[in-house]
Structure formats: C-alpha cells, structure tokens
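Contributing new records

If you add data, match the layout below exactly. Sequence lines come first and carry their own label; structure lines follow with theirs. Keep one chain per record. Anything else will be rejected by the validation script.
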Amino acid sequence: MREDGKITVFLLDDHEVVRRGVHELLSVEEDIEVVGEAGTAADALARIPATRPDVAILDVRLPDGSGVEVCREVRSGDEHIKCLMLTSYADDEALFDAIMAGASGYVLKAIRGNELLGAVRDVAAGKSLLDPVATARVLERLREGKSGRGDDRLAGLTDQERKILDLIGEGLTNRVIGERLHRV
C-alpha cells in the first residue's frame, strides 16, 4: 500500500471492454488506484515491475501466454506483488497452476462488482482467496489421479512441498503457511 493508504492495482486482460469495465469499477473507489494496464502477457511483464502494484489482476487465458505465467514471473521478481487471477473458466488445472505460481486469489469473471472490490482489498491485505473446497478438490484429484495412480506432477515433490500443498488446500494464506512451517 502507498503512503496515502491506497491499494495500487495493475490490470491484465486481452479484452479491452473487460479491462475498461474493471478499471471503471476500481477507479471510483477512494482506496484503490489503477496504476497500469496491459492486453498481453508481454506488455504486462514489461509494465508490472515498473509500476510495482500491490495487486495484479490477471486474466488466465491470453493470446500470447497465460496470466499464470505472468503471475509466476512477477512473483519471482517481487514477492510483495499479490496476484488475483480473473477468469471465465472454472478449470481445476488452471487453479492448480495458479496456486503453484503463487497466486493469492482465483475468481470467476461472473463475480459481482462489490465482490471483486472485496477480493482486491482482501488480497492486498494478505488474505488468500483460493476457495478451500475447490483447492481441496484439485489437490485430492492430483493425489489420487483419475485412474487412482496419483498425478505424475506430485511424484517429484519433496515432503516440504507436499506439506505446503496440504496447507494451501486448507485455504491458509502464505503468511500463515510460512509461520506454520517455521515453527517446526
């Protein structure tokens, strides 16, 4: 958050109408300021580090990549930037990828305006907006695999990474997960 208490937000969506609508929704709020926008992953990766937003709202599907890839790159460069994934699709695979990329939230574009505002504020405050039920379903599917053999992506995980996945599945924030892991 800036010194004046405003939450700074960057928008990434390849649909201009969606970007404008979200920008308009956020701009009328006294505690939120949109500091940048992009329509492609490449533009977002060039602009986000320069604007250093508190929250980056990222469309999952883009013509030149994905918001998940952008999230991973942004978070690896600056872990203080929170990523809120915004998508039209309820996709377990994309949710898993978003979790692994370090996203703080995952919401559908069917969300109401006041709910999106609340999501931005919650993510900026360090809360996780990964639905525990959906996250648990994804993690269970990965553990068991569709055929009951387990998912190959989990085979290479360390014990620590498995613990982290379980804690994410409980809906805990990064901060709480860190505290739990360092207590041991």
